[in-house]
Amino acid sequence: MPGSPxxxxxxxxxxxxxxxxxxxxxxxxxxxxxxxxxxxxRHPWVFSGAIASVHGDxxxxxxxxxxASTGDAIGVGAYSPASQIRVRMWGVDPDLAIDDALIAARVxxxxxxxxxxxxxxxxxxxxSARLVFSEADDLPGVIADRYxxxxxxQLTTVGADRFRDATxxxxxxxxxxxxVFERSDAEVREREGLGPQVGLLRGTSPSADLVAHEGPWRYxxxxxxxxxxxxxxxxxxxxxxxxxxxxxxxxxxVFAYTGAFSVVAAGAGAASILSIDSSEPALAIxxxxxxxxxxxxxxxxxxxxxxxxxxxxxxxxQYDLILLDPxxxxxxxxxxxxxxxxxxxxxxxxxxxLAPGGVLMTFSCSGAMSAELFQKVVAGAALDARRTxxxxxxxxxxxxxxxxxxxxxAEYLKGLIVTAD
Length: 421
Ligand code: SAH
What we know:
The protein is of the alpha/beta class. The chain is 25% helix and 29% strand. Helix 10 (336-353) links the parallel strand 18 (319-324) and strand 19 (354-364). S-adenosyl-L-homocysteine (SAH) binds at residues 227, 232, 235, 255, 257-258, 260-261, 277-279, 282, 304-305, 325, 327.
């Protein structure tokens, strides 16, 4: 039966008075004793195992009332029968109307929280920021990244998918927005029973010459064909930190994507730069970014990073600054062991290539890997590389990727700046 839970909880006929207008809840989810704590503490996820029974016959994405084991209503959320995260909370007020107006208001409020960052009078002004960061902005499943006059939206859950139009409308209404483009082609949609959806939602087609401005730098953004929404806004703090270590350095940028780190290193006076990525189109944009910024971006190499690093090690190459920013190697807890080994391999190889006194900036964007575990993995790599190492700085998510205290899972990006004797 479509929409039926597969976890042994029972489905009983709806007996609550909520079955009225389309924006009203079409069902209720009753939690097991003790499982209401997490909702009361404003955690936005209700896992299938926390649910005792489902009342009514809510369709995927419908609003459901979340009830404590006693039957008291303690909130409302979006029902997602295909996902282990069966309900994503819209709020802890059970009477909250989940409609276009609410979603639009939340989008507008999220964008307003980025005003300081997008202030043209800021020290390093930028016209590009994440405007909406899912649960962290009370909009589970909604990501919106702004690059100049263009906003790229990604909807990752059935609950969010329902509000495509309201979300697009609110984003299009923001001052200076000319284009709202959808890039809902992330794999995570499959876990919600959704297929990919890509295309123009509002305004004019995205410009082929779209550029994100950040301080003095300009980065070409391919919103239709690039990774995720086109650019890694989340690495803003790393881009700001690189100049401190890049002057006169031989730089190795591994997992370079469109070469943003390389542009900054070049601008800071790096002696040489080698950028490695497996994506040829990404490195083609890196070359263009070199030209756009009038810097010598150095050598661009399309290669598998693991193989390329071994090759450099075998040729006894040495670098003064190594940037190591792999893709998410652990998507889930279950992949953590395997991913830990891959992170260790990469960091071990990098530390072997690091010249005495050199600096390694190493990252993990796997949410499943804690900062503590990541540090342990890098420590293990340092031990095996027989290097004496020190952490001289830490990097993480910038303010447009906030972490609610009630939702630590929003934290995924961590970086260590490590020196080696
Ligand atoms: N540091 C970049 C973002 C890196 S994202 C920035 O700030 O823009 C991770 C990159 O790793 C992607 O560009 C992807 O193409 C690349 N990648 C994934 N697997 C790879 C592999 N095995 N070898 C080399 N590059 C890989």
